[in-house]
Design a protein that fits this description.
The structure holds two protein chains of two kinds. Chain A starts with a helix and ends in a 5-residue tail after the last strand. Helices cover 24% and strands 17% of the residues of chain A. Chain A has helices spanning 2-15, 41-49, 57-61, 98-102, 128-132, 174-186, 200-204, 221-226, and strands spanning 27-32, 70-76, 83-89, 108-110, 116-118, 139-140, 167-168, 210-214, 231-232, 244-247, 249-250. Among the domains of chain B are: 114-185 and 387-474 and 487-512, Rossmann fold; 203-374, Dimethylsulfoxide Reductase, domain 2; 590-721, Barwin-like endoglucanases (Beta Barrel), CATH 2.40.40.20; 733-764, no CATH class. Chain B is built from 24 helices and 26 strands. In chain B, helix 5 (130-146) packs across helix 18, helix 10 packs antiparallel against helix 12 (309-316) and helix 12 packs across helix 13. The radius of gyration of chain B is 28 Å and the shape is globular. Classes of the chains: A alpha+beta, B alpha/beta. The interface between A and B is large, with 74 and 100 residues.
Chain lengths: 255, 764
């Protein structure tokens, strides 16, 4: 019985929001919706960095898209008083991620930096995580993808090319995080400096709407953005404790 | 023995006990093609395997001229990022710029010089050699020149700047009377003409969005495809949230909501072609009530007399109260900035309308001030290439000359007029009358398919070049484009092709440079000698290397010129002619609003799979084309999303599915440009339809540019239905509070009606 109690105690701690704050980093992204223009530079930047395949029109028609970050669009009002709101949607790297509890083989787990990580080799393709994800940001490889030669020359050697039957999603560009940590170690620093690395989407954003960093560092840009009164998390009532923080769009009536 | 593979061989080794030495000999004898996991087992000095080398160069995916840094590993380009040192994009880059890698590694690239064997347009191309290709072209050019008929030669290229443009002009000087035309569908003819008329400078100024607090845009989709979208987005973001306590406000006037319209605080639909009247109405308010106190106040008052808010409201359909409010905000929120372009410049009164927008900036005191309109210095090198830009009228003249047999040689480079000119221009038929056409394109496209010879050029990532971006950033900027990877195929850089032609023409003395790099260096030596450059230890070579490393060179800081006085005759001439449309409103009830796709632009991005799989930002449609209808119009016509209709103008028809678009005027229909290619590689061809083909040959009278927003169409249901491929999901929030706003009035409409679904909704 003691084994079970021990397991349950660990599990509770593991699922408790803030558990990951005790580790080295708590990577966080803030997205300022008042800056976002919906231009989708982030989408292509992510595709280029992370070897995301071209799935083709037929697969798209079946809803089998493969884009780790997407721009969701919501209309408000009717013509002529009509508005279109954009929101970039990507894996929220929840501290209490529903996808992690459901995976029968623990292919998705939380790493010590607070990232929701996916082990491709372990994934058996039940797609349960995708069902549990309230943000619908997990993408399944329904097909073997190929790159018409020589498009494959562009593939990033730092990132795996995923196989058929495997779930995948945003990693916060974990390969860049690892590289930045290595650099820090080589320089004899204990920590990665704020702004030293950025995921591809953040780096490309023309309106500087996306900011990435470690929220444990109170001096980091991301921590300052999170302190903005406009900050909120999408579907936070589900208590998923996301690591992506949005800043409300300012309406026309505010000065 | 030849059929044995490595695995069989290993079996033999195991079974027969063949010795290792024999195995080595046999394996050598079998000679399988060698495959290396990394391309260089012994790498060249410059790089180590697994460690990225970054090269700075210039993006050529659109005319904005952003600086890029390309990450290469083992000689392969892996990722394009913005160059943080470049003042245009400051480390940022748009989706199309990112996709430049798929230009380089596109499977449909031409791999070497080609010669047509069968009938033109149908005949198969066979590989030939560079020597042969250049010799034949130069031979024919020489023949015409010897006869004094080199005026029968035309060079047709996409817009070029910098030293490549200078080299083109040098080459043209060798061929007296030959024509050099630069043609781009999206060239801002009317904006340049309006600036020429109003400011006396036919160049693009710098629009300082970053420091503006109130931006009023007439048709200019500055965040989508207008002039310099990445730089505008930087300015937009910083104007919104980059300063404490001074959030910039944005208002967009256009008949169909663009990306910039969606980003704006207020979107105002005005009747197509009447945007200029709206600008005049606001200008009159500024003079009459906004406290304009310039010395020329009386002249303005006289020129704007009659454009009262009520009169303008009747013309534009924008309520008089809105006009007064806009004028009050524009005058009262300093610095303010008015932009004009896009569809507003695409009417028959385009220049008038954009002059009216310039007048707004002048009257509000925004000219020559931070947060307003700043004038760019002339480019530091290269000719003023914009002057040579061909309008629609020029292209018609070229086609007419071709039909009359007055063009004997046409060299086409990187422009695709068969696709980007209306069918009414008859350009493809005109090409048939030209005896000899050479294309320098890297890809087979609709125009290159009609060529006799193809001398394929490098992509921009394999070429030397330079650029002085226009509209620039208000101070002198230059950047060198360098090859980031070794050429993939038997292609040559455009500069080297031109130099090769010049040498074959026997003009070697006037072209002493070994190659484009050499020419570029000679040109930059002049820049180095002339410009006030911080002294570099090591002279020119050190300067050259440091510019290559930085990817950019220039001055710092913006020039504030103060507002120049506007001549009285300019003020007197301010006025907007009523817009003309092709087709009667009875027969063709809708105005067609074609707009540049933000991913495919004028169609050149359509062969990039990443761009095809980038959902349209406003409709989320992937691949394909569609026509956008106001919901009320769709309901009246009994059309639903996916119903295929024939969009018919007096000049053609195309069948496309309907997309019901909530933010378009009821009597306007909109279509994205970019799809509808017939011969542009595997990703672009036979997909969607090209609305340019429908356009009427109506021009703006001053510039001769195509009035691309002035064609009327009708919709004829076909009875067919297709399902539009678009990103899934609900188009309304249904009270889920996903995108939240603060400080706005309560949301009204269907979203609010359904707010009772059992999800916690936070009041903001």
């Amino acid at each position: 019985m003691s084994f079970l109690d021990d397991f349950r105690a660990r599990w509770r701690a593991y699922r408790h929001p803030g558990h990951y704050e005790r580790f080295d980093y708590a990577w966080t992204m803030t997205i300022d919706l008042d800056r976002c223009t919906g231009c989708e530079a982030c989408v292509t930047a992510c595709q280029a960095e992370n070897n995301i395949p071209i799935v083709g029109e037929e697969a798209l028609a079946k809803g089998r898209e493969m884009q780790w970050i997407r721009i969701e669009r919501y209309w408000e009002g009717e013509y002529p008083d009509v508005k279109l709101r954009f929101i970039p949607m990507l894996c929220q790297h929840c501290d209490a991620a529903p996808c992690e509890t459901v995976c029968p083989v623990t292919a998705t787990y939380h790493n010590q930096d607070g990232l929701n990580a996916q082990i491709y080799n372990r994934c058996i393709g039940t797609r349960s995580c995708s069902v549990y994800c309230p943000y619908e940001v997990r993408y399944f490889n329904y097909n073997v993808h190929h790159w018409d030669k020589p498009l494959d020359e562009q593939l990033n050697p730092d990132v795996t090319v995923r196989e058929k039957g495997v779930m995948e999603k945003c990693t916060f560009c974990i390969q860049r995080i690892r590289q930045a940590k290595d650099h820090a170690k080589d320089d004899g620093r204990r920590r990665v400096r704020d702004g030293e690395m950025q995921p591809a989407c953040v780096q490309s954003c023309p309106a500087e709407a996306l900011v990435f960093g470690d929220r444990q560092d109170p001096q980091s840009r991301v921590a300052k953005m999170m302190a903005d009164p406009r900050a909120y998390r999408v579907l936070e009532e589900l208590n998923t404790s996301p690591s992506v923080v949005y800043l409300k769009k300012v309406g026309a009536d505010a000065g | 023995m030849g059929t044995i593979d490595r695995r069989d061989f290993l079996k033999l080794v195991g079974a027969g006990g063949v010795g290792a030495a024999a195995g080595f000999v046999l394996a050598e004898a079998i000679k399988h093609p060698v495959e290396h996991l990394i391309p260089y087992p012994v790498p060249p000095e410059e790089f180590s395997p697994g460690v990225a080398a970054w090269y700075n160069t210039v993006c050529s995916m659109c005319p904005a001229g952003c600086g890029i840094s390309v990450r290469t590993l083992e000689g392969r380009a892996k990722k394009i990022e913005g160059n943080p040192s470049h003042p245009v994009n400051q480390g940022r880059l748009c989706a199309l710029g990112q996709a430049g890698l798929q230009v380089l590694y596109n499977p449909d690239r031409l791999t070497g010089p080609l010669m047509r064997t069968g009938a033109r347009g149908a005949g198969p191309f066979v590989q030939t050699t560079w020597d042969d290709g250049i010799a034949e072209l130069a031979g024919r050019l020489n023949e015409l020149r010897a006869d004094g008929r080199s005026d029968r030669v035309s060079f047709l290229t996409a817009g070029v700047r910098g030293h490549l443009a200078a080299l083109l002009e040098l080459l043209m000087a060798e061929l007296p009377g030959a024509r050099l035309l630069q043609y781009d569908f999206d060239h801002p003819h009317t904006l340049l003409a309006a600036n020429e008329r109003f400011f006396g400078a036919g160049s693009l100024p710098y629009y300082d969005l970053e420091n503006a607090r109130y931006v009023l845009s007439f048709g200019a989709d500055y965040l989508g495809g207008w002039l310099s979208p990445v730089h505008h987005a930087l300015g937009f973001g910083r104007s919104r949230q980059g300063r404490s306590g001074a959030r910039g406000r944005f208002v967009q006037v256009e008949p169909r909501m663009s990306l910039s319209g969606a980003a704006a605080d207020e979107w105002i639909p005005a009747r197509p072609g009447t945007e200029g009247f709206l600008a005049l109405g606001i200008a009159r308010q500024l003079v009459a009530e906004g406290g304009y106190e310039g010395a020329d106040r009386d002249a303005w008052a006289a020129a704007l007399d009659g454009h009262t808010a009520d009169a303008v409201a009747a013309q534009t359909g924008v309520p008089a109260a809105t006009i007064r409010r806009l004028a009050g905000d524009f005058a009262g929120t300093r610095p303010s900035l008015a932009l004009g372009g896009g569809a507003t410049g695409g009417h028959t009164n385009g220049v008038d309308a954009l002059v009216a927008v310039n007048a707004l900036n002048y009257l509000a005191g925004n000219v020559g001030r931070p947060g307003g309109v700043l004038f760019n210095p002339p480019p530091a090198f290269g000719p003023r290439a914009r002057a040579a830009h061909a309008s629609y009228r020029d292209m018609l003249a070229l086609a007419e000359d071709a039909r009359r047999g007055r063009i004997e040689i046409l060299v086409v480079s990187d422009t695709n007029p068969v696709f980007t000119l209306p069918a009414a221009a008859g350009f493809a038929e005109a090409l048939a009358a030209i005896p000899y056409i050479v294309s320098l394109s890297s890809f087979m496209d609709e125009t290159t398919g009609l060529a006799d010879r193809v001398l394929p050029s490098h992509t921009y990532l394999e070429s030397w070049g330079d650029d002085s971006p226009e509209p620039g950033v208000g101070f002198t900027v230059g950047a060198i484009a360098q090859p980031v990877v070794a050429p993939l195929y038997d292609t040559r850089s455009k500069g080297d092709i031109l130099l090769g032609i010049a040498r074959a023409l026997g003009a070697g003395e006037d072209f002493p440079w070994a190659n484009m790099e050499d020419y570029l260096k000679a040109g930059w030596r002049e820049v180095y000698g002339r410009a006030p450059i911080p002294a570099e230890a090591g002279g020119f070579e050190a300067f050259w290397i440091s510019v290559l490393r930085a990817g950019v060179w220039g001055e710092n800081g913006r020039r504030e010129s103060g507002s120049p006085a506007v001549e009285a005759r300019v003020i007197d001439a301010v006025g907007v002619a009523p817009p003309e449309f092709a087709g009667s409103s009875d027969e063709f009830p809708f105005v067609l609003h074609p707009y540049l796709s933000h991913a495919l632009r004028d169609g050149r991005g359509a062969n990039l799979p990443w761009m095809q799989e980038l959902p349209d930002p406003m409709t989320s449609v992937w691949y394909g084309s569609w026509v956008e209808l106001n919901p009320a119009t769709a309901e009246r016509l009994g059309l639903r999303e996916g119903d295929v209709v024939d969009v018919e103008s007096a000049h053609g028809k195309i069948g496309v599915p309907v997309y019901v678009f909530p933010a378009i005027m009821p009597d306007v229909v909109a279509m994205p440009i970019g799809q509808g290619h017939a011969g542009y590689g595997r990703y672009a061809s036979r997909r969607g339809a090209n609305p340019i083909q429908l356009l009427a040959p109506l021009t703006e009278p001053v510039t001769g540019g195509l009035a691309s927003s002035a064609t009327r169409v009708r919709l004829v249901p076909t009875g067919r239905r297709v399902s539009l491929v678009k990103q899934g999901g609900e188009s309304r929030q249904l009270g889920r509070g996903i995108v939240r706003t603060t400080g706005a009035a309560a949301v009204t409409g269907p979203g609010a009606r359904l707010a009772s679904i059992p999800i916690k909704v936070e009041s903001t």
